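Translate structure to sequence.
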């Protein structure tokens, strides 16, 4: 039923669907004081998720990422995965998780149809991990990731945030981590949000802190697939896995934007850092696929060219847990 193209010729085949705003971690850059309830905790239902995914898939989306908040705090996550995986046209069903219950849940998620798993691990040093997340759970998270590899989850990645603290802890442990594991570790430069201005000033470091380290040790950038995110991944002949960088402040970052977001309250967000949100909830509650597709198409015509983070403008985004990073 066609494809989604915006006014700048960008095509959208990737949907990030946030299934909850709730999170059990207190990452220093995201929810340093923990999750605070700001409205009724009523989030998009499994059936509404399926309707949303169906509409986007009809419009050419083939990859769906379930995110949050922490998606795995939902007891019905396996059902959401299964409903998403069953939608015709969806080839990749991905989750981004902090991994707190991965070792217990990954089997059910895999059976439900999960194809891609992203686990957030900012540091492989136990104390640094605890200081950043507020939880002494590094070993448990790594156990869950290894279980996912054993179960043959087709793609397993690690997300880390590049911080003054993570740079200080060093990258050697990550290089060792991917020596045998076929896992891509991608560091993202810290993004400034409405809530973290002071933290940003203290902790932001440019991506060259990582890429200089990699280049000096013989790691080289690889080619990217069409539906890859904006990461540049580096490979090394002695390592099964890769290490990469996502640099949201790099020139041209928004030119290749291929993603749309739907929040846990059923709002279409055209840019993670924009003001524009388009309510879809009324159409998700009923079964109105045609009207839903029409509203999505119309909204896309209004997608802005790029974020304005360089001017210190982060839109309505107070932290990424709010809309799914
Ligand atoms: N709770 C899940 C998790 O942590 O993986 C999913 C949601 S979290 C908002 C998604 C990703 O956004 C995580 O990998 C997290 O590290 C990243 N993130 C959160 N705040 C960020 C910020 N200010 N700058 C860069 N990345 C951020
Ligand atoms: Fe929670 Fe993820 Fe934010 Fe950490 S980054 S506080 S795990 S939503």
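Result:
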């Amino acid at each position: 039923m066609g494809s989604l193209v915006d006014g700048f010729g960008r095509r959208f085949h990737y949907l990030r669907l946030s299934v909850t705003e709730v999170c059990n971690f207190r990452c220093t850059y995201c929810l340093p004081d923990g999750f605070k309830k700001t409205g009724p905790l009523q989030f998009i239902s499994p059936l509404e998720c399926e309707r949303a995914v169906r509409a986007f898939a009809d419009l050419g989306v083939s990859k769906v990422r379930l995110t949050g908040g922490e998606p795995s705090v939902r007891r019905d996550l396996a059902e959401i995965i299964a409903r998403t995986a069953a939608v015709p046209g969806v080839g990749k069903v991905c989750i981004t998780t902090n991994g707190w219950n991965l070792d217990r849940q990954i089997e059910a998620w895999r059976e439900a149809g999960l194809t891609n798993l992203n686990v957030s691990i900012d540091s492989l040093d136990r104390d640094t991990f605890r200081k950043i997340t507020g939880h002494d759970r590094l070993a448990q998270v790594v156990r869950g990731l290894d279980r996912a590899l054993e179960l043959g989850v087709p793609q397993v990645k690690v997300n880390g945030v590049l911080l003054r603290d993570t740079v200080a802890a060093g990258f050697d442990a990550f290089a060792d981590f991917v020596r045998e594991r076929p896992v891509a570790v991608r560091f993202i430069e810290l993004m400034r949000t409405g809530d973290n201005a002071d933290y940003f000033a203290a902790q932001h470091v440019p991506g060259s802190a990582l890429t200089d380290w990699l280049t000096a040790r013989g790691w080289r950038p690889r080619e990217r697939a069409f539906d890859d995110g904006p990461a540049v991944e580096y490979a090394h002949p002695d390592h099964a896995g890769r290490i990469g960088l996502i640099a949201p402040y790099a020139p041209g970052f928004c030119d290749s934007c291929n993603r749309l977001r739907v929040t846990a309250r059923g709002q279409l967000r055209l840019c993670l850092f924009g003001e524009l949100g388009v309510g879809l909830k009324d159409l998700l509650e009923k079964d109105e696929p045609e009207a839903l597709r029409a509203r999505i198409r119309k909204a896309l015509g209004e997608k802005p060219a790029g974020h304005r983070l360089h001017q210190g403008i982060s839109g309505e985004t107070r932290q990424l847990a709010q809309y799914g990073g």
